[in-house]
């Protein structure tokens, strides 16, 4: 409300403190952290600063999601969590107002609320000491997370203009590449086992060394996906083990970003084809029930699997699911 000229954003104190803070936030974004903006303000005023202030470090394109209105910030965070398909427990809230911090802390206790110092000179130091942003190894997908979220919003907007789901899926022009994992894929494979909670058959969390060891005795299939809006990256993992005439589906998971587009059917079809080439008769899918992964069990049952035990699903290889016609499949799985 102070206008561009009224903002303390310069090379002098306190402006340089805000610039340094923004530089650190931008570094987090480059490291795979999504930035969201929640502001009680007028929409045009906020973006005017982002786009035209000469000392502004962050730009509109750096923001993965935003809510600029006069609603409670806790309510806005809930909306953003739903929009970005993230848990509230993955949000870190920073605000210079103790009143706003208390409101968020009270109404969304899952959110990590950072106690900000009164003096902006200590903002950057406070940010640097947060354990939740400790350095970690990055995958290619981490470095473009904001871009991936922007593309997903474009897909949602496009879906609103299409008459039905079938036409929408056809219009996406999906291309799924399914192949055996290479060494360069393994960090992402390990990451997906650690982070995927919804479409994850076993919920087994594995480190990179564990994945490297598994690769010596099992076939690790990976699925990468593209469509008319961009590249999803590596979004699916299957760890397959021939065992006593059957194919053991040790791991079957997909990133939630790729679900509901028929790609999971394409991935499963490839696994049935893999079993056929190995002359195996059954596919065994051990299922570990968790708080959020019931959908993968439901999916397999809909694809013809039968629940033989409480923690085991089985299917005859001869009863392979159909290959989805709207997904172009590029398969390179040598048996």
Helix fraction, binned, reads 25-40%
Helical stretch tally: 12
The tally of strands reads: 12
Q: How many independent structural domains?
A: 2
Low-confidence stretches: none
Shape: elongated
- Summing up helix and strand content along with how strands pair, one would put the structural category as alpha/beta
What's the architecture of the largest domain, going by CATH?
3-Layer(aba) Sandwich
Strand-residue fraction?
15-25%
- The averaged pLDDT comes out at 90
CATH homolog superfamily of the largest domain: Gcn5-related N-acetyltransferase (GNAT)
User: What is the radius of gyration computed over CA atoms, rounded to a whole number of angstroms?
Assistant: 23 Å
The first-level CATH class of the largest domain is given as: Alpha Beta
Describe the structure concisely.
The chain is an alpha/beta fold and 335 residues long.
Describe the protein.
The protein is an alpha/beta fold. The chain has two domains: 4-133, HAD superfamily/HAD-like (Rossmann fold); 140-332, Aminopeptidase (3-Layer(aba) Sandwich), CATH 3.40.630. It is 37% helix and 21% strand. The radius of gyration is 23 Å and the shape is elongated. The mean pLDDT is 90.
How is the secondary structure organized here?
Layout: H1 15-30, E1 36-39, H2 43-52, E2 65-68, H3 73-84, E3 92-93, H4 98-107, E4 112-113, H5 123-128, H6 140-143, H7 145-160, H8 165-172, E5 174-180, H9 186-195, H10 208-214, E6 219-227, E7 230-243, E8 246-254, H11 263-277, E9 282-286, H12 294-302, E10 306-309, E11 312-316, E12 327-332
Helix pairs in contact: 9-10
């Amino acid at each position: 409300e102070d206008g561009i000229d009224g903002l303390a954003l310069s090379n002098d104190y306190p402006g340089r403190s805000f610039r340094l803070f923004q530089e650190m936030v931008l570094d987090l974004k480059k490291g795979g952290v999504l930035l969201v903006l929640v502001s009680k303000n007028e929409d045009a005023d906020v973006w005017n600063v982002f786009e035209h202030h000469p000392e502004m470090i962050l730009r509109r394109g750096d923001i993965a999601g935003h809510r600029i209105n006069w609603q409670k910030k806790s309510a806005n965070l809930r909306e953003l969590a739903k929009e970005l398909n993230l848990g509230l427990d993955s949000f870190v809230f920073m605000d210079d107002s103790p009143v706003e911090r208390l409101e968020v802390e009270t109404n969304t206790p899952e959110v990590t609320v950072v106690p900000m110092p009164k003096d902006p000179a200590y903002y950057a130091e406070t940010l640097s000491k947060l354990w939740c942003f400790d350095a970690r190894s990055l995958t290619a997908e981490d470095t473009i997370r904001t871009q991936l979220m922007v593309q997903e919003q474009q897909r949602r907007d496009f879906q609103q203009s299409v008459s039905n789901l079938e036409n929408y899926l056809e219009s996406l022009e999906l291309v799924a590449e399914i192949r055996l994992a290479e060494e360069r894929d393994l960090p992402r494979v390990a990451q997906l086992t650690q982070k995927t909670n919804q479409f994850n058959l076993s919920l087994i969390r594995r480190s990179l060394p564990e994945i490297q060891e598994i690769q010596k005795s099992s076939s690790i299939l990976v699925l990468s996906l593209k469509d008319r809006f961009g590249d999803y990256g590596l979004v699916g993992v299957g760890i397959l083990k021939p065992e006593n005439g059957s194919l053991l589906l040790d791991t079957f998971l997909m990133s939630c970003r790729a679900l509901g587009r028929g790609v999971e059917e394409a991935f499963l079809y490839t696994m049935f084809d893999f079993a056929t080439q190995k002359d195996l008769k059954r596919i065994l899918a051990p299922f570990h029930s968790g708080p959020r992964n019931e959908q993968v069990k439901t999916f397999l049952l809909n694809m013809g699997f039968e629940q033989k035990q409480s923690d085991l699903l089985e299917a005859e290889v001869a009863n392979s699911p159909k290959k989805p016609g709207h997904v172009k499949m590029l398969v390179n799985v040598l048996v």
